[in-house]
Predict the structure.
Amino acid sequence: MTTLRTNRDRLVTQILAGEVWPALADRHGYRVDADGTPFLLPGMGGVTLGAHAGDPATGYAGDHLEPGLSVRAADPGANMALQFLSCVGNVVTVRSGPAAGATGRVIGQHAYVLVDMPEERLALVSSGDRVSVAARGQGLKLTDHPDVVVKNLDPDLLDALPITTRADGRLEVGVAARVPAAAVGAGAGMVSEFANTDLMGAYAGQGADLSLGLESLRIGDLVALEDQDHRFGRGFRRGYLTVGVISTGHCRLFGHGPGPSTIITGPAAAFCVVDDADANLGALL
């Protein structure tokens, strides 16, 4: 195996601004799960304690669980820039409030940019606190793998991931799970720099008829999405492969589930996928 050659020396870093967005609801409150059971549970927005990279992604009393900080910008255009340009592994610095100066890392995108940091720091952050993101990574290319497209990945994190060039020229990627195309739910059809792909079949405790064997997913897991082409959006294409990082957790809403943010995509023949139970951001971040 050889190390990866990239164009990292031609990338720039752009400092983006956002704030911790509050959890939102409307007066109707309830949603309905896959079996028609109404529920009202915490999930998106605000500051979420008790779930970090390396922890289980399923089994919580929650819906659309967003670990850590949920960050966006108030201006719509600035918010889209934050979504499109923030990359997994980027450093995030809290700029206001009792936690000012604390740093964390982007672990993915959802309706917000999601930021993980140590629990004791998270507990000091409140909705409305300002943060900055050192956005770097969009435009990253793997010099020796022209058919493989990199998305949403900080080049410094790339060095730490179980990704190498094999002697036969293929890109070897260690993944914690392999995901069949049948599991792909909400998020299909969106551009792959925005939000993530919800995976069905991980409804822990909701019946074997809904299971695709994904209940053991963890936040921060690297996963291989089979027959998924995310080069120009997100969609089904036989013979393609996408690698993502699980950035959101448990969902009860039908068609939704733990969601990977895209980091690498291309023809399946360009990859050698290796099962690796330790392929997770937890120890790295």
About this structure: The chain has two domains: 12-135, 149-275. The domain at 12-135 is CATH 2.40.10.170 (Thrombin, subunit H). The radius of gyration is 18 Å.
